[in-house]
Amino acid sequence: MTNKISTPDLCDAYEEQIAIGKIGILDAIFNNYGGLDSFHGEVITIKCFEDNSIVKQLVDTPGNGRVIVMDGGGSLRRAILGDMLAEKAASNGWAGLVINGCIRDCDEIAATQLGVKALNTHPMKTDKRGLGDLNVDVSFAGQTIRTGNWVYSDNNGILVSENELEV
Fold first, then answer.
1. Which of helix, strand or coil describes residue 37?
2. pTM
3. b or e along 94-131 (b: 16 or more beta carbons within 10 Å of the residue's beta carbon)?
4. Structural domain span for residue 36
5. Are 33 and 9 in contact (CB under 8 A)?
6. Would 32 be classed as within a structural domain?
7. Could you read off the pLDDT of 107-116 as tens digits, one per residue?
8. Total structural domains within the chain
């Protein structure tokens, strides 16, 4: 989903669930690169280090308002997402991507109707070796994220919840 959300409001409304660990807040290490500064949806996870083959396959499928959470191992040496994959994700109905790694084509991605959070930019594309894992638990930015969790993201931060939240 792409309707406007406020992570500060969600933190206020769900303070008890945050305190007991049912809702986590990702460490403040991400930058906003997408055309949408606010997005949320059910999570699908990918683990892919310097190879975006699985990402390419996934963005070719219907997103149905979901969010792709990619663990690129925090690599700052290659970009896991570029403008063509971002455009494909947007056109197929993905709400956004949270990337523990880099993107490229940041100006084009900023013009795409898609939420994109990543660590940084890098001009080099990834290798295409067909490596990566889909629907596996990923751990980065102080949280473990699973397929089926929910992500809520805006310019203030990123929340991950075991269940869908009332926004």
1. coil
2. 0.95
3. bbbbbbbbbbbbbeebeebebbbbbbebbeeebeeeee
4. 7-161
5. no
6. yes
7. 999 999 999 9
8. 1
